[in-house]
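Lecture 7, part B: from sequences to assemblies.

Below are the input chains for today's worked example.
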Amino acid sequence: MPLTPEQQAEIENQRSTTRETLRAVSEGMERHLYTAIPVLDHGFVRVIDYMGDDAAICQAARVSYGKGTKSVSNDEGLIRYLMRHWHSTPFEMCEIKLHVKLPVFVARQWIRHRTANVNEYSARYSILDREFYIPERDALAAQSRTNNQGRGAALEGEEADRVLRILRDDAMRCYDHYEEMIGEDGQQGLARELARMNLPANIYTQWYWKVDLHNLLHFLRLRADAHAQYEIRVYADAICDVVADWVPFAFRAFEDYRMGGATLSATALDCLRRMLKGEAVTQETSGMSKGEWREFEGILNGPAQPGS
Amino acid sequence: MPLTPEQQAEIENQRSTTRETLRAVSEGMERHLYTAIPVLDHGFVRVIDYMGDDAAICQAARVSYGKGTKSVSNDEGLIRYLMRHWHSTPFEMCEIKLHVKLPVFVARQWIRHRTANVNEYSARYSILDREFYIPERDALAAQSRTNNQGRGAALEGEEADRVLRILRDDAMRCYDHYEEMIGEDGQQGLARELARMNLPANIYTQWYWKVDLHNLLHFLRLRADAHAQYEIRVYADAICDVVADWVPFAFRAFEDYRMGGATLSATALDCLRRMLKGEAVTQETSGMSKGEWREFEGILNGPAQPGS
Amino acid sequence: MPLTPEQQAEIENQRSTTRETLRAVSEGMERHLYTAIPVLDHGFVRVIDYMGDDAAICQAARVSYGKGTKSVSNDEGLIRYLMRHWHSTPFEMCEIKLHVKLPVFVARQWIRHRTANVNEYSARYSILDREFYIPERDALAAQSRTNNQGRGAALEGEEADRVLRILRDDAMRCYDHYEEMIGEDGQQGLARELARMNLPANIYTQWYWKVDLHNLLHFLRLRADAHAQYEIRVYADAICDVVADWVPFAFRAFEDYRMGGATLSATALDCLRRMLKGEAVTQETSGMSKGEWREFEGILNGPAQPGS
Amino acid sequence: MPLTPEQQAEIENQRSTTRETLRAVSEGMERHLYTAIPVLDHGFVRVIDYMGDDAAICQAARVSYGKGTKSVSNDEGLIRYLMRHWHSTPFEMCEIKLHVKLPVFVARQWIRHRTANVNEYSARYSILDREFYIPERDALAAQSRTNNQGRGAALEGEEADRVLRILRDDAMRCYDHYEEMIGEDGQQGLARELARMNLPANIYTQWYWKVDLHNLLHFLRLRADAHAQYEIRVYADAICDVVADWVPFAFRAFEDYRMGGATLSATALDCLRRMLKGEAVTQETSGMSKGEWREFEGILNGPAQPGS
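Predicted structure of the full complex, as structure tokens:
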């Protein structure tokens, strides 16, 4: 349970005060505001603020494309058109601000997405809490033998026990030493900005993260993907649920064109045309490498199962 | 008068519907929403949406700096501290979306500020209106003789008449030919994306422009400055009035530290120390070039008068 | 012929001095350095500088992915893998700096690509030359009747004559008035920053444009596309030729996966699977709108012909 | 000693091959190419590539500002002018690519500078080396009592011993367990992407970091500052030495206007004017808070001593 009683009280307080506004309001998003969605063992995602809705995307597109956009029958059709033709700027007109609590090694992946605004809790100035990510047993994946980027089956039995014991013991010991080095109140101790170097990467940090919808969808496409590391994917999945309620038309278009879609190369399209004419194309006759052919077959055989 | 009856009706409609929200609300900004602030002869600035307020800046800073920020007595003090020490990320946590109508040559300056989201009216797809910026007589500045970047005194009498006649006549003739080349409805004519090349740079365009507060203040520092071209400065001035109502603490800090402040070089600081000790420093003994010394004297003599 | 004798002499001078360097050198690119590639009637593209080559992309990828990248047999295979899986950061490790001379209405499209560095000739400080883009007769496209974004067939005969006469006459007259308003040397005239507003959008400007390879390829995908406006496409085509000589592996991968490839939606992939099993899918049974279905058929029928 | 024999051999190999180029060459930079500058106990900074030199800054400025820039007598004068008046785009026309080895907690500060290209060694795919930052005794700063952001005097004697012992022991134990969890070759073990979470923040990582000169100078202003954390400041200092050799005019202007300069608020400038007229201004009569007044006095009393 990731929320302290104080945090729960803060959320209830924030949710108890409604105010009047002339701005665009997304009812689906209002329900999410401030509420913490639990992720992993101590993490969460909270919506702090948002700007715009599906209509705001269309409004911006209509400024740009003028009469052309009026021939599209309705907002959902227009949003699908924009997504299909890679018109990114109308989606940039919506913005979201999240409060996220997450392990440091997840934060390090996340921050590579540079087109966003971030305010992270500073371990230079403040003391980190004793909270570490310890995986569930079924998330204790073994290194894949066939694929050096992914995970194989979960560890089991004593091996799993041993790993969990190591992670817990090292985290606790490192944190004990962190506290010890910092020293008690009133006593001089090692500077916080130095002591933090003893803390392992499964310690939790938190930040405010603000991003426009276009860049958020790009983030989600990469991080809610089956090939993303499980520990960041669960955050992306939680945010997907939020976005689906915030801008339902945009999210459905995103699912169809991005998450469920695939990009085929000129070579692959050529093979496809030959196959549709009845030719039995094989890897050897495809012009693709073995790796490409395997991926191409994967696309033709159906969507990748999440987690597979 | 920049607004058509349709636009006025749209604004009144948008302002007549208030809705409930749990988000942060800036009362000062709600008064501006949708209302068009006239700028130049046909231009305007309209606030379409905003995110955050002064409190949101502090909230983000407190996530980052933790207990350190609590020692600052209040929100205004904290905001001043952040501005003084160039902490930019908390200001990035506020966002504004504007609808701006502006001459193309102003738009070309404006767009150089790259950290913003833009949806511009497309002259590829749509037909531009017959609206051109024609300066007021007292804005018809002569080229400065001493300063190749600025303006001298205004042209007068017949010379001013002649310039205004040229600008008006060429604009009208070019627009007549634009319409003629495009052809009438139902008749085939030159593609719009080509015909637009005949239109001069004082024609009006419009766009949605969305930017975070940090980057907006950077824009305002450069464009509300006395050295900015008058035609973009009036837009910056109009936006300054909006920001002052939106985030009054941040705007006051911005006025003190940025707009009214000055950056002194190491050489200039050294001169200053000598002067405070009673030494009579001259350009020759200052270590500065003539240009630098003139600027240094300007700072010591007091704020530049806008428009001077 | 876009180059003045002075520019030609400058290029010859720059090309006559070779120096020694320890940096990565792309032989293909050295041949392009400084040479102006003519585009349109007065425009050009010149390579001013570059950083990196195909090997630099691999070098950066190997820092990131370590041993994983060694299993890929060679540099071209690795580059294809990176492109196929949307690994953008290794491509960001190459950089190019171009000097481009282009009509203002093309510059306005180009500048929407924000992730680049730009230094444009300033009409605030300097006087623009009397050079305007006047299309070739076969580029005088009519507005398409079926597609409000594109061009139809070229205008012909008297209609073409009339359009060309308008474009030439208005350009010359506006430029005459520009010169007249500015005044002669020694005489006070209208400030340059104001006088420029009388110049139509087919006047030429120029800039230095610096961009990394990832963002350049994104630009090329959109602007070398058959749907891009002809006047920007010819610049993109010229740059494609340069990139093909600079980073030949990366460019071939780009052609296969991006320029010649296509993204299919989940719905389209589902149709494809049904078709490969022998089902006769129609628009009515596809789950796609008419517009989507038309585009889907276009992909299955083969690559779009440039200019069609 | 941060370099392995393999790395040393690689550097020697890279430095032994000179090639011819037509590009701008900075002799000062050629001497740095590939050579590793040691930083901290195992870290380094290596120049991998660069684009441009002082002349390239002026060349880009002259495209923009045309004749205006010719009135400035020489390149150094022009560069000083550009720096003084915050013209950032000409500095963006130079680019540098560095290979940096640095502790993770330093990397986490560094990455907040978002306008750069990064390829980091991936602990998802590869195994991290057993290398940890262990501070020198005189860098073992105590937490400052008066300033919650900085460091006080160094710990001494047994307290220092104890801290060093903790840092070393925890690093070694965590790394032993990391190896143990990963398992030996041929044996299935925990996925690398999970095992890395056990590693503390003083472990070394490495990346390629590419940035333009304008953004690099902004980074250096913040990170070579006396208030920056010592462990990132030593990297910034090493890079300052490189930049001084690469673009000596730009670096000297940077030292004068940025590193050694100071920004004064409108209120501070007003006080200064009163003081220069002979008034004895005190904090009480200054209109500044106590904190601001203290900083103002610091500026008037002379440059902050690094490390103070």
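Note for the exam: The beta strands of chain C are 19-21, 36-39, 43-51, 95-103, 117-120, 141-143, 151-154, 204-212, 262-264. Keep this in mind when comparing with the next example.
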